[in-house]
Amino acid sequence: MKLKLISLFLLISISASAQDIIFARKTLDTLTSPYFWGRGYTNNGMHKAAEFLTQQFKSYGLVPMDGKKFIQNFSYSVNTFPGKMDVSINGVALIPGKDFIVSPDSKGIKGSGKLIQRDNTHFIDTVNRITVSLKKKLTWSAEQRVLDHTIIELDKSLTTITPATIKVNIENKFVDNFKTGNICGVIKGIVKPDSVIVFTAHYDHLGGMGSKTYFPGANDNASGVVQLLTMAKYYAAHPQPYTMAFILFAGEEAGLLGSKYFTEHPLLQLKSIRFLVNLDMEGTGIDGITVVNATVYPKEFAMLKQVNEKGKYLVKINSRGKAPNSDHYLFTEKGVPAFFMYTLGGIQAYHDIYDISATLPLTEYENLFNLLIRFNDGLMNKIN
Asked: Could you count the other beta carbons within 10 Å of the beta carbon of residue 373?
């Protein structure tokens, strides 16, 4: 009988694990699909993502953090590129995202002209105020301003001849009041509900550059969203002594704007947060993870490493100091103890059109989940 029970337990564990990875892959595919258009500022991408993720929270059984609604609304300005994105150099039409990107703070322009070489990597159309810059890697972002000129970054490997002429038709639209929101849910604690452990991840990405090109954002940060949703599902089914809170931020790519708004307008008392873990770029892990703020909170970092060594989850956990490189930072500045964890190794796609679900391995998805569960047990004094 004992052997049968052990076998049954192992079968249930394997089945649950298989279901989790199927859920993770399906959700990753969904969030990076053309429907969500890079979870950004055109084709209603970020709004569609917010609706989808809100429904996920509801389906798991989370309740709104403020007791009323899951969305914490806010707005900000952003430069967008909803339409034409045509660029030709020396009479050759280029492919957006693959051959070139437009600097996200550029103004729209339609025209043609000659390019004057300024140095080995910069060419200027003085009439149309266009700068062509040669780059080894094309990396896009989001901007809250518009320049009085246009910058086009060109893949350096394309230039077998010197750029001499240019023809462009680029449309931009500056949105001074882009409306979006953070998604905030909780699972109330059953012993100490006023003590809170928080998980955060940003769900926004860069959206589209023109009407035909979008940036899927699989690793950055659909992977973090998927890990957070997995945690939310688990804790909704397994209530804990402490309250477990989950925040999906908008506006991270434009400058940590969602976490800034939340920390300035908190929906729970920041002093009640026992610890916060921010998940950003969680899709690899063959070389382990890095923990930002490890040196700021050495006691918790030591516990995390101890949990990892006992469970043999990750090959390595690297220590890093304070850094303003994701949404944890503004909480730390308000005195909230927090880690930012990101995975290492594997694909190198970042802020480009190649950050896709199909090539994101989710190498340590399950091990990271187990590490976080056990780490939380330690935070709640459930393990020695």
From this structure: 16
Rounded to the nearest 10 degrees, the angle between the axes of helix 45-60 and helix 2-31 is 160
Residue 6 pLDDT > 70, yes or no?
no
Burial class (CB in 10 A: 0-12, 13-18, 19+), 299: exposed
- Across the range 100-123, mean pLDDT stands at 97
Whole-number pLDDT of residue 9: 39
In the structure encoding, which two tokens stand for residue 185, read together?
């849910």
Q: What is the distance between the alpha carbons of residues 292 and 252, in angstroms, rounded to a whole number?
A: 17
Confidence at 10, pLDDT banded by 50, 70, 90? very low
Is the per-residue pLDDT at 5 higher than 50? no
Confidence tier at 152 by pLDDT (50, 70, 90): very high
Is residue 128 classed as helix, strand or coil in its secondary structure? coil
pLDDT surpasses 60 at 304: yes
Pairing label, strands 165-170, 85-89 = antiparallel
Distance, CA of 236 to CA of 230 (rounded, Å): 10
Distance of CA 366 to the CA centre of its chain: 19
Q: Give the type of residue at 10.
A: L
Residue 13: predicted pLDDT: 42
Burial-class residue 73 by CB neighbours within 10 Å (0-12, 13-18, 19+).
exposed
* Alpha carbon distance 219, 351 (integer Å): 9
DSSP at 13: H
- The strands making up 109-114's β-sheet, listed across from edge to edge, are 92-93, 85-89, 165-170, 109-114
pLDDT reported for residue 3: 43
Tell me the CA distances in angstroms from 75 to 46, 177, 181, 186, 214, one per residue in order: 12, 6, 8, 23, 22
Residue spans of alpha helices (H) in 212-322:
223-237, 257-264, 298-311
Provide the sign of the torsion angle of the four alpha carbons 353, 355, 357, 359, taken in this order.
positive
